[in-house]
Structure formats: C-alpha cells, structure tokens
Amino acid sequence: MRTRPSGDSEEQKDAASHKEAPEQQPQGEEREDPTEQLRALKDRYLRLAAEFDNYRKRTQREKDELLKYGTEQILLQLLPFDEIFENIIGTLEQGRAEDDPIRRGLEILKEEFSRLLASLGLTRIEAVHQQFDPRLHEAVATVETSEVPEGTIVEEQRPGYRFHDRILRPAAVKVARPPHASNEVPPEDAGQGESGA
C-alpha cells in the first residue's frame, strides 16, 4: 500500500512551506523603515486635511453665493411692479394736485416698495446725463444733439438695476451723437453725386 508515503510527503511539504514562509519576502522589496512609514502617513494626513479644508471653504462660498443671489429670479419678476408704480405716478402728476390722496398714497407705496428692493440688495443704475457704458447700459437709439457731449445718455427708456455687484438688467437708453453738418453729404449720397457729374 503506497498511500502512506504520499500522505507523509504532503505533510512534509506543508511543514516545509510553513518553515519557509516567514523567510520569504517579495524580491526587490525591503521592509520599510518605521520612520519612513510615519512620514508617508503624516504626509497623507496633511494632504487629506488640506483637501477637506478646501472642500469646506468651497461649500461655504457656494452657500454664501446662494444666500446672496438666490432671490435674483424673484427680483426680476418684481421689477415690472416698480415700473408700473412709476408710470401711474407719472400719469397722475399730469392731472392731479400734489396733495391728492390717491397720488400721495401711490407715492408712499412706491417709496416703500423701492425701500424693500433696496434692502434685498437691488439698486437702480444711474443713466440720464451719464456717459454711456456698455456694461451698464443698452443703447436702443441715438439722438442728434449739440447740447451735450457725444456718448452722453439723454433719455432712459427702461431703468436698469444692479443686484449687489451683478448687473441684473442694463438700462435701455438713448445716447447723444453730434448732428450732421448741413454741407456734408451723407455717405450713401456721396457716390451718386460723383457719378452724375
């Protein structure tokens, strides 16, 4: 019966492999120095701490911006009411006395509404008599005049608004340009005058 030697050889192989196991180490790798391991772990900890701090700061900035600018869409929807108040008051100024109770009541409502918008961070962009600025104003027309310098806003068609440091809506304006001299030929007529001669 030859089964016995094979059993012995397997047991011997297991015993031999257990004896060799502690001595076996992957080739080319040496045990890391504990101070080197500590340094690597400390470096990893510092990197993770810095990443977490950056994450915390970024989420705080996003939260602050959301609180600051979260009402932007609501304010855009409220702007027409401010303009309606102005139009009604402008119409009433033409036909009613200053001490008229309806006119005075609407003026008070307009003042309170404007105060509410200002408390939320909304300010009106100054336009008339200002120099045209494409970041703040939208030119809808030009007006020939010699009374003011070129590029000066002469009329506001629709008010513009700033929300904190952002332009919520630019002001729609008419801008001054110098009048054409009567002896100058407009550019489209210049070619016709020469061909007829």
Question: What is this structure's SSE topology?
Answer:
Elements: H1 3-20, H2 34-69, H3 72-95, H4 101-119, E1 122-125, E2 137-144, E3 153-158, E4 160-163, E5 166-169, E6 171-177, H5 187-196
Parallel strand pairs: 2-6
Antiparallel strand pairs: 1-4, 3-6, 4-5
Helix pairs in contact: 3-4
Explain this structure.
This protein has 197 residues and is an alpha+beta fold. Helix content is 54%, strand content 17%. The protein contains 5 helices and 6 strands. The chain has helices at residues 3-20, 34-69, 72-95, 101-119, 187-196; strands spanning 122-125, 137-144, 153-158, 160-163, 166-169, 171-177. The strands form 2 sheets. Strands 1-4-5 form a 3-stranded antiparallel beta sheet. Helix 3 (72-95) runs antiparallel to helix 4. The longest helix is centred in the first third of the chain and has 36 residues, at 34-69. 5% of the residues are buried.
Key words describing this protein structure:
197 residues, alpha+beta, Nucleotide Exchange Factor Grpe, Chain A, domain 2, three-stranded antiparallel beta sheet, three-stranded mixed beta sheet, 5 helices, 54% helix, disordered C terminus
Strand residue percentage: 15-25%
Please give the share of residues in helix: 40-55%
> How many strands?
6
Structural class: alpha+beta
Strand arrangement within the widest β-sheet reads 1-4-5
Query: Secondary-structure element sequence?
Result: HHHHEEEEEEH
Would you kindly provide a brief summary of this structure?
This protein is 54% helix and 17% strand. It is an alpha+beta fold.
